[in-house]
């Protein structure tokens, strides 16, 4: 049976509370949904990179290309720079940054057939040292440094209104809705629930009665014994 984030969180909720959650519970269903998302992301990445990589499949199933638009460009040391809106997946040859498209005018459209050229760190300087191709034949190249992209030209000076669109490879379960079917194997469901249960089972349950007339001592471990 296909499962969803809400179903996993609900099952973990019932397990932690020992039945139907009480009104005084200190754990919310939204908190458990986030915990389930984190566990699912972790399990998927471990599975795909440990299994698929061995058979030569380097891009995990479940990877999607997210489109991010209206990204600003700033001048930077005679060139230009932009910041990635999210951190993409780490894929060979930096394919997590799938494509970058320019829009040169605010009222214009993104030029999807004129994407920029990706290069590895240090390659732009090498190419620009060669007289025949130092202008990259009129094309724009970029190098990736962490969350920054450094371009081969000062795009902001050449095109003051420029904006960028980026297609980035991501695999994030938080992009799924509460009731969307998750791309996980049936046997993973129990593992997700058990891992979330372990995270929260050590928390103090609700229902503690506090006597306002008794002052609590702070900083004293509960299991500390009185010394004679």
Instruction: Point out poorly predicted stretches.
Output: 216-228
Task: State the separation between the terminal residues, measured CA to CA.
Answer: 61 Å
Kindly state the number of beta strands. 8
Largest sheet: 5 strands, mixed
Radius of gyration: 26 Å
Run of helices and strands: HHEEEEEHEEHEH
- β-strand amount: 15-25%
Provide an overview of this structure.
With 228 residues, the chain is an alpha+beta fold. It has 2 domains: 5-58 and 184-200, no CATH class; 64-170, no CATH class. It has 5 helices and 8 strands. Strands 2-3-7-6-5 form a 5-stranded mixed sheet. The chain has a 3-stranded antiparallel sheet with strand order 1-8-4, with no helix packed on it. Helix 1 (5-17) crosses helix 5 and helix 2 crosses helix 5 (186-200). The longest helix has 23 residues, at 29-51. The protein starts with a helix and ends in a 28-residue tail after the last helix. 16% of the residues are buried.
